[in-house]
Amino acid sequence: MKSIVIKDAKILGGAPADILIRDGLIAEVGHGLSGDETVGARGLVALPGLVDLHTHLREPGREDAETVETGTRAAALGGYTAVHAMANTEPVADTAGVVEQVWRLGQEAGRCDVRPVGAVTVGLGGERLAELGAMADSAARVRVFSDDGRCVSDAVLMRRALEYVKAFDGVVAQHAQEPRLTEGAQMNEGAVSGRLGLTGWPAVAEEAIIARDCLLAAHVGSRLHVCHLSTQGSVEIVRWAKSKGWDVTAEVTPHHLLLTDDLVEDSPVGSYNPIYKVNPPLRTHADVRALREALADGTIDCVATDHAPHPVEDKETEWAAAAMGMIGLETALSVVQEAMVETGLLDWAGVAERMSCAPARIGRLEGHGRPIEAGAPANITLYDPSARAEVDPAGYASKSRNTPYQGRTLPGRVVATFLRGRPTVLDGKLT
Ligand SMILES: [Zn+2]
Questions:
Q1: Which residues of the chain are modeled with pLDDT < 50?
Q2: Are 283 and 252 in contact (CB under 8 A)?
Q3: For FRET with 187, which of 20, 136, 241, 256 sits at 20 to 30 Å CA-CA?
Q4: Residue 37 lies in a domain
């Protein structure tokens, strides 16, 4: 393997330095370094390769929406070197066999590490625990378990899952949605849903589950991760749980940091546009403010995309029938720049912590989320924060096009991504 030197990169936004990569590792960080090949990085910020805790790759079963191959291409273009693939595939990833299949597909695609998430209950049915131990012991070494898309609403099952994962240092990632309170729910419950006549999705449906699960996690002394926080109240509950010293972590999606429920009523793409239909729903400006502040102060540990590809026919239909979800891998860093960096809430070191180090730690993913220093695996993203471009999903690697940012100008551009020293993206293009 030839050595590569990245010249004049601003590591975590700091002073320019060279990064020498050899044999998949960062060999040296310094000045005046040389290697077999040179990648110029003047003006670019170097971040540890991004890690996503929450990606829907849709394979097996919904290869019309995404495959491991297309999803990991999108991930690399977004600056990611590792993604956690959610379990709500067809069949569900609830056995060692299915998680190993997804893990192997990731290895074959080779552009980004794929760590499967295991289902908590058999078939996401919410009735019987899946074979958590077998998935943890499998070649995929599953550490994150989630019925995402559905809530583990049964308190006894949730308690058992939390107890079970302690044996292998796993974590239960809860999709917090009280099912009875959200029956038929179409969007955030509030003034806008009232005006539009759409069934509301109350904040309390999320907050009640988070409060319960924090108490359960404390009771059994286990680790809880809360998926896609979307309300101010959820932030307050997680802040309270952390103040008690409980082992609770939380994520927020890029879209919940930028978009609000009034887009359903009035947006550049009209009203009732299902591009804005997502689970949990877009909330209010006050919620967005609280989420940004919580991500800045560390109450929310990380950004997770909840990349949720859907084919055109499932999104371009009437609101009530449309699928919930947005793609996000290829815009995540730009959205975080706009919502968090340009508002002065986070610097690049903060972005690195919340988009790489923290998610790697929560997922117990070795080799990712490490500082850019000698001896670490060379998982690196080079990013140009001065770029600005109009979002055009026509050029995206994802198989799906359901981005809410089409036509919107976003800052920043991923210029290069290195996975263990091998460039997966150069000059903004897949290698
Ligand atoms: Zn979810």
A1: none
A2: no
A3: 241
A4: no
CA of 159 to the centre of ligand 1 (A): 19
The Cα–Cα gap between 379 and 176 comes to 32
State the pLDDT at residue 81: 98
The answer to the question of residue 79 being in a domain is yes
C-alpha of residue 228 to centroid of ligand 1, in Å? 7
Catalytic residue among 23, 306, 314, 347: 306
- Classified as helix, coil or strand, 428 is coil
Q: How many domains in the chain? A: 1
Q: Which strands form 224-226's sheet, in the order they lie side by side? A: 144-145, 171-174, 224-226, 248-252, 302-303
Q: 267 in helix, strand or coil?
A: coil
Report the separation in Å between the CA atom of 12 and the middle of ligand 1, taken as the mean of its atom positions: 30
Is residue 215 in some structural domain?
yes
Cβ–Cβ < 8 Å for 210, 238: yes
CB atoms within 10 A of CB 336: 26
> How far apart (Å, rounded) are the C-alpha atoms in residues 365 and 180?
35
The rounded distance, in Å, linking the Cα atoms of 113 and 72 is: 8
Q: What is the reported pLDDT for 47?
A: 98
In this structure, are residues 209 and 267 in contact, taking their beta carbons and an 8 Å threshold? no
d(CA 181, ligand 1 centre) in Å? 16
- What pLDDT score was predicted for residue 222? 98
Q: Helix, strand, or coil here: 60?
A: coil
**pTM value?**
0.98
3-state secondary structure of 358: helix
Please, which residues bridge with residue 22 across strands?
A: 25
- The two most distant CA atoms of the chain are separated, in Å, by 64
**In this structure, what CATH number is given to the domain that contains residue 128?**
3.20.20.140
4 has which bridge partners?
21, 37
Task: Report yes or no: 138 and 118 within 8 Å, Cβ to Cβ.
Answer: no
Residue with tokens 């009875």: 180
Amino acid at 45: V
- Its domain, for residue 331, covers 49-369+393-405
306 as an active site residue: the answer is yes
Q: Report the separation in Å between the CA atom of 146 and the middle of ligand 1, taken as the mean of its atom positions.
A: 9
Residues paired with residue 113 on neighbouring β-strands, in sequence order: 82
